[in-house]
Amino acid sequence: MSQDINQRLDWTPNAELGALPTVSADDHRYGMRHFAVGVTIISAAHGNAKAGLTATAVCSVTAEPPRLVVFVNKNVAAADLILDSGALCVNVLASDQEEVAKAFAGMIKDVHGDERFDYGSWRHLISGAPSLDGALANFDCRVVKVFDESTHHAFLCEVLSTCERDDGEALIYLNGAFRHVPQ
User: Fold this and answer.
1) Over the stretch 96-112, which tens digit does the pLDDT of each residue have?
2) Are the C-beta atoms of 108 and 102 separated by less than 8 Å?
3) Which domain, by its residues, includes 85?
4) Beta bridge partners of 174
5) Phi then psi for 37, rounded to 5 degrees?
6) Closest CA to 51 of 25, 77, 70
7) What is the three-class DSSP state of 139?
8) Alpha-carbon distance 75 to 73, whole Å?
9) What is the pTM of this model?
10) What is the CATH number of the domain that holds 159?
């Protein structure tokens, strides 16, 4: 069973460092506010249900095979849909999609659940997860592993299909606000 984990079982953390306390959650959050990151919508569907969330915790893992890791809070509806369907789409937002980001972040009053998909134009690529038209890039993925990371699931994904546009500015998140980065 341990071979399925893909974890170095012959490695142990530094015991002296392991005994040190970590920073507080507030200190960590404050520090991370200064880390400029691209804004994405993580979307998923299973059966007739669909859900999505605005996220910044996405990272490329390898190009061969093409893999991403996506961290999703266990308490959001999309987490269960991703687990049930085994698929998700990472939609990298352009600066003209800030309203979509706000809708999926819960920042627009009285917009919840499926109503979020009224923002932007959506279609499906290969996996069945909703894909946002006009995003800077879409990564349509199958989930190959799920890691339990405290309050979040870490979904290791393989990319099945991509779409991209070569115009537009990036939407990033920095210091608690959306910002635009010109090409």
Assistant:
1) 999 999 999 999 999 99
2) yes
3) 36-181
4) 177
5) -135, 150
6) 77
7) strand
8) 5
9) 0.92
10) 2.30.110.10
